[in-house]
Every structure is written in C-alpha cells, then in structure tokens.
Amino acid sequence: MERTSFLHANSGRLAASVAVVFWAAGNVMVASFDLPGMQIAFWRLLLGAVVYGVVMAATGRRVTWATVRLVALPAMTIGLEIAIFFTALQNTTVANATIIGTLQPIVLLAVASRRFQEQITGWLFGASLVALGGVALVILGASSEMVWSPWGDFLALVAMFLFSAYFVFVKNVRGRVDTLTLQTVSMAIGAATVFPLAAIDAGTLAVPFPSWGNWLFLFALLMVPGTGHFLMNWAHLHVSLSLAGLLTLSIPVVSGLGAWLAVDQKVTPVQGLGMVVVIAVLVLVVRRDARLAAH
After folding, report:
1. Which of 236, 201, 242, 187 is nearest to 43 (CA)?
2. pTM of this prediction?
C-alpha cells in the first residue's frame, strides 16, 4: 500500500511537471494565432468535449447529473479562464501575461495552508520568493522590447485568479470523479459557458466556423495545453496544492524558450540567468517533496 502511494506521488509530480510545460507551449501557440481569443477558447473547448466524449462512450463510461452538478463550478471557472487568458495573450505580451500568472502560487500557498491544512514551511515560502525573483529576471531582461497594455494586463490578472480558483475547485472534487469524466464534462460545460462571450465578441450568435487550417491548429491546442489540463487534473489527487502552484512558475521560462525556438525571439543573458534560477529552485522543491514523501 505504501509503495503504491509512493509510486502515485512520483507519477503525480511527473504529470504536473509535464502539464506546465504543455501549458507554456500553448501560450506561444495562442499568441501567434490570428483567430480571436474568445473564439479560440470556444472552439477548442467544444472540440475537446467531442473528442473526450467519444473516448468516454468507447470505454463505456456514462455521465450522471450528479457528476454534472459536482463538476459544474470548476468547469465554468476553467472555461472563463481559458477564454480570458487567450484574449489577454492577444492584447498584451506573452511575457506580461505569464509574469502576472506567477502570482498564482502566492494565492495557492495561502489557500493550501488554510483550507487543506498543508504545511507551508519557511523553506518553501523562501524558495517561492527566490523563484519569483528568477521569473522577474526573465521578464525584466526583455523589458526594452515590452509594450504595456493595461487592458491585456487586467485580463491576465483576472485569468490568474480564475486559474487559482480552478485549482482549488478541482482539488475539492477530484477524489469523487475520475480524470476522463472531469475533463470531458469540464470541456462541455466550459464551451457552453464561453459561447455567449464568443458570440458577443463575434457580433453574431453564429460564431464564425473555423477554416480547415484553423481546425488543425485547434486540434494541436487540444493535444498540447489541453493534455496539460488532463495531466494536472490527474495529478491533483497525488500532489499538494502548494507544489502544483509552485510548478506553474516554470511557465514563463518555458514560454520564453519556446518563443526563442519558434519565433526567433532573443533570450538575453539576464533572462538566461533568471531561467536557470527558476528551474534550479523548482528542481530542489520537487526533489525535496519526493524525499519527504518517501519518509
């Protein structure tokens, strides 16, 4: 029993780590796409509901009204978060949006301590501050190339609070619903939640149907950041909320590297130093968490 729990904890840390890498890659993808953020969110969520729904049907699973009621709050929250964050990525820089998102671990550390009675030691809090400093270096290292957008930054801030709330809501229900059902119902309800916003954004109830090329992009979004959500949803049952939150600090680092590789954005020496600091701290945090779990 203890060995199974240990293996699940290790798998949870791995799944959560891969999830944030996939989310970071998704940021670069969305920022470079010309479809409006609200419409990207709606069609990706709808596509996900269909794809995961087919998988559920093929595996003989059924969704009950009790499950729908259980998942409704996190589903509506993540739908709104995706729509607002995708819009933020197209109205401010990826750097600005991701640095605002790094406030999430601070919010989650407070919630983890109060709601889930997780022990937040001085070491863990100090490590989070050092990692935040590293993230600041990543962003400030490119400050000369930034274009500040108050509206885009505000949307990113709203998305950060929604994403923090989503982590907490999923943590609350994860023990009562399996990952595939959670993912499927979340995408279906999320699509229904975002539809009015996408319609308002498009100026018509008939939200423009994507081209075949756009569908390929949407499918890629489902496979990359969408899979990130699946992995993190599974991991929530096996890792602490504080660890899951801290791992999101790697998103600006990986997004910066992705922008460098994909769209030839430069990485300055200061940014490189910040990336090393963040990754080094997170490696220490994950290894320490694994060591404590083994005892």
Report:
1. 187
2. 0.83
